Amino acid sequence: MNSTIVSNLEWLQDRIRQAARAGGRDPAQVRLVAVSKTQPAAAVNAAVAAGQTLFGENRVQEARYKIPQVTGSSVDWHLIGPLQRNKVKVAVELFQMIHSVDSVALAEDINRRVPGPDPLPVLLQINVGREPQKHGLLPEETAAALEAIAPLSRIAVKGLMTIPPFEPDPEMVRPHFRALADLAQRLERLNLPGVSMAELSMGMSHDFEAAVAEGATLVRIGTALFGERSTRP
């Protein structure tokens, strides 16, 4: 077992618990998504052996290669990166949740491709920072998009995701996290059938504590767990 990954995981879990309690939240409400993009399967297996069961991948093709090499029957995989529409068929077979639904058209494609009887949980990606280079619905577009997506029977919207502008000081990012939580509350009040705002995917290695304080339920952490990224999977 990789001792560095074990100690990093313990440190992260402790920091998440402390951040949740400091914000008056139950630590059990926050899950760590171990971002394994570009990390070899051996590193993922080391994290699994240390007790981590939820992993996030950015690219469908990398995940398709890596997932069969990871042992552990209780491991779940989330797609946290952009999903190209020509990769939807593979993605819905690999992942237990997709964080990056950024359009009605993509949601419709996913809905057509989901195998089996159960709807696939998805999150809507929101561009809270209004950065032109980033994917995501703008906040003012989200209600209309959600109303169009809600009737799709093979997917289930479970909440929102965001990647805010990078700031070295986590306190500078906090308003973006708060804005996502506020948007989720407004969308919850629409009372759309089959739609939940239970999940907020926000916060990464350098700012996850601020995200937890503002209501994150899924924090996506890679570098602080695995170390600097490898150049290839």
What does this structure look like?
It is a single chain. The longest helix has 20 residues, at 3-22. The chain has a single domain (3-226), classed as TIM Barrel (Alpha-Beta Barrel). It starts with a helix and ends in a 7-residue tail after the last helix. It is globular, with a radius of gyration of 17 Å. The model has no long low-confidence stretch (mean pLDDT 95). It is an alpha/beta fold and 233 residues long. Helix 6 (142-149) links the parallel strand 5 (120-126) and strand 6. It has an 8-stranded parallel β-sheet with strand order 7-6-5-4-3-2-1-8. It has helices at 3-22, 41-49, 60-66, 88-94, 104-113, 142-149, 170-188, 208-213, 223-226, and strands at 31-35, 54-57, 76-79, 97-101, 120-126, 155-162, 199-201, 218-221. It has 9 helices and 8 strands.
Q: Radius of gyration from the CA trace?
A: 17 Å
Helical residue percent band: 25-40%
Listing every helix as H and every strand as E from the N terminus to the C terminus, the arrangement reads HEHEHEHEHEHEHEHEH
Name of the level-1 CATH class: Alpha Beta
Largest sheet: 8 strands, parallel
SS elements, strand count: 8
Strand content: 15-25%
Q: Which topology does CATH recognise?
A: TIM Barrel
Number of domains: 1
| Poorly predicted spans | none
The coarse silhouette is: globular
Helical run tally: 9
Structural class, judged by helices and strands? alpha/beta
Lateral strand order in the biggest sheet: 7-6-5-4-3-2-1-8
CATH superfamily (homologous) name: Alanine racemase
Spatial gap, N to C terminus: 19 Å
Task: Give the CATH architecture.
Answer: Alpha-Beta Barrel
Mean pLDDT: 95
